[in-house]
Design goal:
The structure holds two protein chains of two kinds. Chain A is of the alpha/beta class. Helices cover about 25% and strands about 35% of the residues of chain A. In chain A, the strands form three sheets. In chain A, strands 5, 6, 8, 9, 11, 12, 14, 15, 17, 18, 20, 22 and 24 form a 13-stranded mixed beta sheet that branches. A ten-stranded mixed beta sheet of chain A has the order 4-3-7-10-13-16-19-21-23-25. In chain A, strands 1-2 form a two-stranded antiparallel sheet. In chain A, a hairpin with a 2-residue loop joins β3 and β4. Chain A: InterPro entries: Fe-S_cluster_assembly_SufBD (IPR055346), SUF_FeS_clus_asmbl_SufB (IPR010231), SUF_FeS_clus_asmbl_SufBD_core (IPR000825), SUF_FeS_clus_asmbl_SufBD_sf (IPR037284), SufBD_N (IPR045595).
């Protein structure tokens, strides 16, 4: 997916196409113990995983829907009993093939259109591709495998790396009791990635997973577990998309990241779910001494998103950076932000949030920074900037700060405004028309995010923004 | 959650209070309506984050705090000749219509459980009326609380192109402790203030609360601005065991403005829940929210600032700053400055910081042979300067500075 190719491609068509819905196994709608046993049995899982699923199901059933958050997105349409929780695509190799040509034509064609095989050649250490509930393609360059780096799909990890998964899977990082949708995820998760980077290993090209929902009314619940051992480094990228249907889709992923001493993990997401998708994720990282976590998130798609990647700074000197951009157009409610818990001395965090709302869309930065008693010498800086295009749209900022320690440096800043008339006038005086001027200003506004991504993804993100902006500027 | 009506309260209590004060029927009705709604109303909203509730109002034992028929206060009211500054009981005869027209128009008595309780039971308070074109520089209301519980209600009405500066001081009476039985029981002070600022009028309302630290304080101050009107609030909180303070302006008229300046200084295990909110409901409105506070020992502050810009609030300017200085490791500062923006033709910003006394500044002063404690105290006093500078009334500034100094000693 070189930048020239992208220029020639109709971006909207690339995400919007639908494939005929066929599968090897499709669970009934709704969520019962029977469904969960079916999923677990179909995956031939060990007993402990089934037990965890069933426990999570119970917690899900006991927890109320979140409805009392100030200004939260409307979730009244989200009826889990209407969701098809599990669709196993009709492919021969269960754990995912490592050659695109072995995939059925329609699935291969899907990922070709999304540009994944092309990107793999050019810019990535490894690629996983999930279609509906299961990973259909998984491959990593040999030189990483030789160093002991593991990049496989989560279902395979449960079988092949059972002990390490058993220890880390939804135990210390994101327990199902965290929130209702984490519990749902714990009950019916399927697919996702497992990444293990051994000590002193730097994976210098990103690994990527791409998640595609094709069927109407389905839910995708992939689980990602990343373990970076001492002094290791990895950059994980996830992309997601789905064609739009009239019924709602639900995406409720779970991400757990363990950042070891002196390790560095970057987790980048370009989310472009269709505008009938509810995107309710739980993402969390635990960072040991002097480790560093980075969350880079671009939220472009979905009908409603509630996502607050969190970092627990557990070891002395650990640090965390959040960069997040949200773009809400017509009918979209993007409620996103960050959570950071400073639980050790000399920990640092920065949060940079950019949001754009237009045509009646709503963005909200909702964030929490907690500095525990004893986390002396810690510092946090939060910066939120919002750009608005009209008075149909809404831009909210709701930060929460809890500071239990005096020897700290805490700063929060936020601004909201419109595109400056002077900026536009200046660009027009240089011969740009109004639309181009606005697009250019928006591209500049989100640059802090795009410059953190490999060039292919930066171009992608810019294309998505342009697409959102097209034809709707007055 | 809904709060239970206190067993000790009855409609009779409310009627007795109204009768003793010889109030007009409409006010009795307002009180009774508020009383009837108590069952249905909730306590004011409190911020909640995963696993934490920032202020525990539910923990207050209103049954023992509220003693409606034994309320006692000494309130001195001063104003110039052309402005009306009276207790309600003395104002009904001449200004009954103005009071009836404005009472509850800005602050709905049934806003929440605590406002309804306050309107049903208030026995003191002040009516301030500034006729058109009058400039009243110097209105003071100094209240002393002398009972277990005290409910106060203040209404300020300014007519076109008038201006008024009002200073309100609230303290506990010297012998107040003796009046509370059993001795050492907690006390409750409720203070509702509403301001209806007429066209092109200017209101500055300063309130300095320094109640004894066995007192639980609830105050809600809300103003509404007509076209070109200005309401500037100054809210100083140093006293009480627990303070819940909401200071709010509805910018309802085009071209109107508001400023909310807050200063607090908590020590021991004081809990301060301070809120500043502004709603931009009209065009060309401006708001500036500035709060600074210091926390010592085990004090805790909880701050929420809300800037809400409505769909029709074209050309809005709205700013908010909140800074907290921590003097102790056992203190806690929680803050949530919120922006709710529905119109893009807005310039809005907010910022919040938490930090401690700057080590370099301290070192510099020590190098000038100032002893550490004096140096620290000077830096704390200096920290309040940006807030003090916003206060245009010398008397209020002096009072606040004195209280800050006294606390540092």
């Amino acid at each position: 997916m070189s930048s020239e190719d992208l220029q020639d491609t109709d971006t909207e068509a690339r995400f919007e196409f639908k494939k005929e819905q066929k599968s090897a196994l499709k669970a009934d709608k709704g969520l019962t113990e029977e469904t969960i046993r079916l999923i677990s049995d179909d995956k031939d899982e060990p007993e402990w995983m089934l037990e965890r699923r069933l426990r999570a199901l119970k917690q899900f059933q006991e927890m109320p829907m979140p409805t009392d958050w100030p200004g939260q997105p409307d979730l009244s349409e989200v009826d889990v009993d209407e969701i098809v929780p599990y669709i196993r695509p009709d492919v021969d190799v269960r754990a995912g093939v490592d050659d695109w040509t072995e995939l059925p034509d329609d699935i291969k064609d899907t990922f070709d259109k999304l540009g994944i095989p092309e990107a793999e050649k050019n810019a990535l250490s490894g690629v996983g591709a999930q279609y509906e509930s299961e990973v259909v393609y998984q491959n990593m360059r040999d030189r990483w495998e030789e160093k002991g780096v593991i990049f496989c799909n989560m279902d395979e990890a449960v079988q092949e790396h059972e002990e390490i998964v058993r220890e880390h899977f939804m135990t210390k990082c994101v327990p199902p009791s965290d929130n209702k949708f984490a519990a749902l995820h714990g009950a019916i998760w399927s697919g996702g990635s497992f990444v293990y980077v051994p000590e002193d290993t730097t994976v210098d090209m990103p690994v990527q997973a791409y998640f595609r929902m094709n069927s109407e009314g389905m839910g995708q619940f992939e689980h990602t577990l990343i373990i970076a051992e001492e002094n290791s480094e990895v950059h994980y990228i996830e992309g997601c998309s789905a064609p739009k249907y009239s019924a709602f889709n639900l995406h409720s992923g779970g991400v757990e990241v363990f950042v070891g001493e002196d390790a560095h993990v970057q987790y980048s997401t370009v989310q472009n779910w269709s505008k009938n998708t509810y995107n309710l994720n739980t993402k969390r990282a635990i960072v040991e001494e002097n480790g560093r976590m980075e969350w880079i998130s671009g939220s472009m798609g979905s009908k409603a998103t509630m996502l607050y990647p969190s970092t627990i700074l557990k070891g002395r000197g650990a640090s965390d950076n959040h960069i997040t951009i949200a773009f809400a157009g017509e009918g979209q409610d993007i409620d996103t932000g960050a959570k950071v818990y400073h639980n050790a001395p000399n920990t640092k965090s920065t949060i940079e949030s950019k949001s754009i709302s237009k045509d009646g869309g709503r963005t909200n930065y909702r964030g929490l920074v907690h500095i525990a008693d004893g986390a002396e010498g810690s510092s946090t800086a939060v910066e939120c900037d919002a750009l608005m295009f009209d008075n149909e749209s809404t831009s909210d900022t709701m930060p929460y700060m809890e500071i239990n320690e005096s020897n700290v440096d805490v700063a929060h800043e936020a601004t909201v405004g419109k595109i400056g008339d002077e900026d536009i006038f200046y660009l027009q005086s240089r011969g740009l028309d109004d639309d181009d001027a606005k697009q250019m200003i928006v591209s500049g506004f989100i640059e802090p995010i795009t410059e953190e991504l490999p060039i292919e993804y930066a171009v992608e993100l810019n294309r998505l923004v342009e697409l959102e902006m097209e034809g709707s500027l007055g | 959650m809904s709060t239970q009506v206190l067993d000790s309260l009855s409609e009779d209590t409310v009627r007795r209070i109204a009768e003793e004060r010889d109030e007009p029927d409409w006010l009795l009705e307002t009180r009774l309506d508020a009383f009837d709604e108590l069952d249905e109303l909730d306590l004011p909203d409190v911020i909640q984050t995963p696993g934490r509730r920032w202020t525990n109002l539910e923990g207050l034992d209103f049954e023992s705090l509220v003693d409606p028929l034994n309320q006692a206060d000494v309130t001195e009211r001063d104003g110039e000749d052309d402005v009306v500054v009276l207790p309600f009981t003395e104002a009904f005869a001449e200004y009954g219509d103005v009071i009836e027209a404005n009472f509850g128009s800005v602050l709905d008595p049934q806003e929440n459980y605590l406002t309804a309780l306050s309107v049903a039971l208030f026995t003191t308070g002040t009516f301030v009326y500034v006729p058109a074109g009058v400039d009243a520089e110097d209105v003071t209301i100094r209240a002393e609380m002398n009972s277990r519980s005290l409910f106060s209600q203040t209404l300020v009405v300014t007519e076109e192109s008038s201006s008024v500066t009002i200073l309100e001081g609230i303290e506990s009476g010297a012998d107040a402790a003796a009046d509370v039985s059993p001795a050492n029981a907690d006390r409750y002070f409720s203070n509702l203030v509403e301001v209806a600022a007429g066209e092109n009028s200017y209101v500055q309302y300063g309130s300095l609360q320094n109640l004894a630290e066995d007192t639980y304080t609830y105050t809600l101050k809300r103003g509404s601005t007509d076209t070109y009107a200005t309401i500037n609030w100054i809210e100083g909180n140093l006293g009480s065991a627990l303070t819940r303070s909401d200071v709010e302006t509805e910018l309802d008229g085009d071209g109107s403005e508001t400023q909310i300046v807050g200063a607090f200084f908590g020590h021991d295990d004081q809990h301060l829940d301070l809120n500043a909110r502004v709603w931009h409901n009209a065009e060309n409105t401006t708001a500036d929210l500035v709060t600074r506070g210091v926390l010592d020992e085990e004090a805790r502050s909880v701050y929420e600032g809300v800037q809400d810009v409505g769909r029709d609030a074209w050309n809005t300017s709205s700013y908010q700053r909140e800074n907290t200085l921590m003097l102790s490791d056992d203190a806690e500062a929680d803050a949530s400055p919120k922006l709710i923006i529905h119109n893009h033709d807005t310039e809005a910003s907010h910022s919040a910081t938490v930090g401690q006394v700057d080590a370099e500044e301290l070192f510099y002063m020590k190098s000038r042979s100032i002893d550490p404690e004096t140096a620290r105290n000077m830096l704390v006093e200096g920290f309040f300067v940006p807030v003090l500078e916003e206060i245009r009334v010398d008397e209020f500034r002096d009072d606040l500075e004195e209280l800050v100094q006294a606390r540092l000693e």
